[in-house]
Amino acid sequence: CREQLSSQSFLLPLTDITPAAVPPFTYVRAISFGESTFTVNSIMEGRRGQSCISGEVMIPLLVTFTDANSNGFTARSSITFTHTFSLRLPQDSVEPYTIRCRAAFRSSTGRFINDTTVSVLGCIVLIAKVVVNVDLLVPSYGYCVYPECTGCGDICTAFLDLPLFP
Fold first, then answer.
1. Which candidate, 107, 30, 17, 15, places its Cα nearest to that of 67?
2. For the segment 120-146, what is each residue's pLDDT rounded down to a tens digit?
3. Whose CB among 6, 9, 72, 164 lies 3.0–4.6 Å from 154's, allowing a Cys bridge?
4. SS3 content of the chain, % helix, strand, coil (to 5)
5. d(Cα 58, Cα 101) in Å, to the nearest integer?
6. What's the rounded Cα separation, in Å, for the pair 6 and 153?
7. 8 Å CB contact between 83 and 42
């Protein structure tokens, strides 16, 4: 399923700040940078064949900022939060399954709290899926469409309207 989370607030501790950067810093933007991870904490059976999967989502970020001399720099950070999905899991079988979650983050609103911490407001897109090895041939014309998650929140216009595939 696909879920969109808009106006999410995070405190980002920054690492890998270039020593040449001269405070005070001005926040420019933060974007997802690298592979996100999802660690399953619990799986509970739900109704109508759905299961509630709860876990920790971690998204690595690249934060862009300017220094007192208007020079541009980047630093690294990450956000981690707990999220719950409702997915249909396969019945017991010999072939095991895994649950994967891809995540993207964008923010252009934020401010430095101190020289190594930024407070940001951003948008997140999550795509959760159950992965199992199967022999299946499905003809597809164009891009596959991910169904909406039940109870999805508001839409963060420009970022969330981007196509899922380049």
1. 17
2. 999 999 999 999 887 766 766 777 777
3. 6
4. 0, 60, 40
5. 10
6. 7
7. no
